[in-house]
Amino acid sequence: MPIITISRGSYSMGKAIAERVASRLGYECVSREVLLEASDLYDTPEIKLEKAIHDAPSLLERLGHGKRSYVAFIQSALTRYVRRDDVVYHGLAGHLLLKNVSHVIKVRIIAALDLRVEVLMRREGCTEREAAALIAEQDAQRRGWTQSLYGVDPQDPSMYALVLNLPSVGEDEAVDLICHLAGLERFQTTEASRRDMEDLAIACAVKAALIEKHPEISVGSRYGNVLVYCGGGDRNERQVRESADPLMGSIEGIRNLEVHAGVPAPESAV
Question: Domain containing 232 — which CATH number?
Answer without folding.
Answer: 3.30.300
